[in-house]
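A reminder from the course coordinator: this example appears on the midterm review sheet, so study it carefully.

Given structure:
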């Protein structure tokens, strides 16, 4: 199992960040078009989804929303398994670099969209 964790500070409350991620219209703007299923919800601090259709053998994405002063620290944790068994593991460093870029983009777009929606 491989693991990646990224965090960012959002200018909104944990509830606003949580609500943003529960809105399918927002998710289509920041996520790849994979089939995902929500596996766990603890409003407004936790959202866990698993992909049932993706290029990975296993993909679990956990979103934590923690108060950070008047803002929110969003922590994204990804657990994934590469496809193709041991052959897939040969490409894991390439995948980490790609995921890092994806999450940088995702966080930038999330911040921009939330700036328009939040009350802070």
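Designed residues:
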């Amino acid at each position: 199992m491989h693991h990646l964790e990224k965090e960012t500070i959002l200018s909104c409350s944990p509830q606003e960040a949580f609500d943003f991620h529960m809105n399918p219209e927002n998710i289509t703007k920041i996520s790849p078009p994979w089939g995902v299923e929500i596996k766990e919800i603890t409003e407004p601090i936790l959202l866990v989804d698993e992909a049932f259709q993706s290029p990975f053998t296993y993909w679990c994405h956990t979103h934590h929303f923690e108060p950070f002063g008047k803002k929110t620290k969003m922590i994204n944790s990804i657990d994934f398994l590469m496809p193709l068994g041991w052959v897939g593991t040969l490409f894991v460093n390439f995948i980490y670099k790609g995921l890092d870029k994806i999450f940088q983009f995702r966080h930038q777009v999330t911040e921009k969209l939330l700036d328009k929606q939040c009350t802070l």
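The longest helix spans residues 92-117. The chain has four helices and five strands.
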